[in-house]
From TrEMBL:
Protein name: O-succinylhomoserine sulfhydrylase
Keywords per UniProt: Amino-acid biosynthesis, Methionine biosynthesis, Pyridoxal phosphate, Transferase
Pfam families, per the entry: Cys_Met_Meta_PP
Reactions mediated catalytically: O-succinyl-L-homoserine + hydrogen sulfide = L-homocysteine + succinate
Organism of origin: Albidovulum inexpectatum
Cofactors: pyridoxal 5'-phosphate
Family: Belongs to the trans-sulfuration enzymes family. MetZ subfamily.
Record-linked PANTHER family: CYSTATHIONINE GAMMA-LYASE, TRANS-SULFURATION ENZYME FAMILY MEMBER
Signal peptide boundaries: none
This protein's record includes keyword Amino-acid biosynthesis: yes
UniProt function note: Catalyzes the formation of L-homocysteine from O-succinyl-L-homoserine (OSHS) and hydrogen sulfide.
Length: 391
């Protein structure tokens, strides 16, 4: 319902109940559906009506609840769920372009997103990378034959904030579609569609699950884009979300707003507590006043998000000593989890990048990305300060 507020949508939107009237959403763990007659089967293959299904690669009732809930939350007409965040990114881009098309992307991206853009190049799509925070570079790169622009609204792991409205104005003036990977902004703080994004992509693996259980993803957009561009590609290439994982995501959504707001408050407190620490050359957090896009982040999200990046002055050795001294915060590479997680991007998530590219993206040897969880904020600050002593 359009007039419901976020928390109500997160709990009730898209709900469907079987004849048993179950309270918790049912898991329809079925890949196929039985037809009453051959005529009905034929009719469904010609055109699917609302709540009609033929095969779980195309759609499934539990998955449909998740899609409708995400579309309502994001403020788009429709959504399509995918097996992972990367299936969503790949689907959103690949379904749209053909050889000869042009795409402009911010260069500070999650490693696998970079891979997908490089892949498009192998199939004759020209891709131009720009510094996402420099609007002149976007203006210079976007051309009348640009089919799409792609950006992470807050980049991984250096937390650069891209001005969605300004980039959308440049893209739309040239007829290009704006695709935003909004994982770091989270659906709770997202106003991407309001600011001009046409397509918003999430890895549901992160905050939407929120407890590190399942992979999942979703693409939100107009009914025309989702049904005419994306769905034909995804339903035939096999990136479908499992009904079980969709159910886990639905349970995650019930607490998403509460969790993300608590995690962002902790992130803000951690960033403030560590800011200026002698072992750190930088504390990067959009919620801190010294962040280069602080004002933009506040306008665009109203909060700094759930991730803080730290640059250890002593480089890789200091970063490793710090990581190894953490007791509550776990060394891993997920984010948005209830458990706080520390990642060393240069040797893990971004290891594949050549050193000069790492340097250009600010992925220094001392950089540590912290995803703040739901533990007690003082315990976390204590753990981080003790580990900094060891660094
Ligand atoms: C994790 C992540 C993805 C990929 O999601 P998966 O669910 O791991 O496939 C894409 N973009 C960003 C920004 C991410 O953080």
């Amino acid at each position: 319902m359009a007039d419901w507020k976020t928390r109500t949508k997160l709990i009730h939107e898209g709900a469907r109940r079987s004849q048993y009237g179950e309270m918790s959403e049912a898991i329809f763990l079925t890949q196929g559906f039985v037809y009453d007659s051959a005529e009905q089967a034929e009719a469904r293959f010609i055109e699917l009506g609302e709540d009609e299904f033929i095969y779980a690669r195309y759609g499934n009732p539990t998955v449909r609840i998740f899609e409708e809930r995400m579309a309502a939350l994001e403020g788009t007409e429709d959504a399509f769920a995918t097996a992972s965040g990367m299936a969503a990114v790949n689907g959103a881009l690949t379904s749209l372009v053909k050889a000869g098309d042009h795409v402009v992307a911010a260069r500070a991206l999650f490693g696998s997103c970079l891979y997908v853009l490089e892949l498009l190049g192998r199939f004759g799509v020209e891709v131009t990378f720009v510094d996402g925070t420099d609007l002149d570079q976007w203006r210079a790169a976007v051309r009348p034959d640009t089919r799409a622009v792609f950006l992470e609204s807050v980049s991984n792991p250096t937390l650069e904030v891209v001005d969605i409205r300004a980039v959308a104005d440049i893209a739309h003036a040239n007829g290009a579609l704006v695709i935003v990977d909004n994982v770091f902004a989270t659906p709770v703080f997202s106003r991407a569609v309001e600011l001009g994004a046409d397509v918003v992509v999430y890895s549901a693996t992160k905050h939407i699950d929120g407890a590190g259980r399942c992979l999942g993803g979703v693409v939100c957009g107009s009914r025309d884009y989702i049904r005419k561009v994306l769905e034909p590609y995804l339903k035939h290439t096999g990136g479908a979300l499992s009904p079980f994982n969709a159910w886990v995501m639905l349970k995650g959504m019930e607490t998403l707003d509460l969790r993300v707001r608590a995690q962002a408050a902790t992130a803000q407190a951690v960033a403030e507590a560590l800011s200026g620490h002698p072992k750190l050359s930088r504390v990067i957090y959009p919620g801190l006043k010294d962040h280069p896009q602080h004002d933009l982040a506040m306008q665009q999200m109203g909060a700094g998000g759930t991730v803080v990046s730290l640059d250890l002055a002593g480089g890789k050795d200091a970063a490793f000593r710090f990581l190894n001294a953490l007791r509550i915060v776990k060394i891993s590479n997920n984010l948005g989890d209830a458990k706080s997680i520390a990642t060393h991007p240069a040797t893990t998530t971004h290891q594949r990048l050549p050193d000069d590219q790492k340097a250009r993206l600010g992925i220094t040897p001392g950089l540590v990305r912290l995803s703040l969880g739901l533990e007690d904020t003082d315990d976390l600050i204590g753990d981080l300060l003790t580990a900094l002593q060891a660094a």
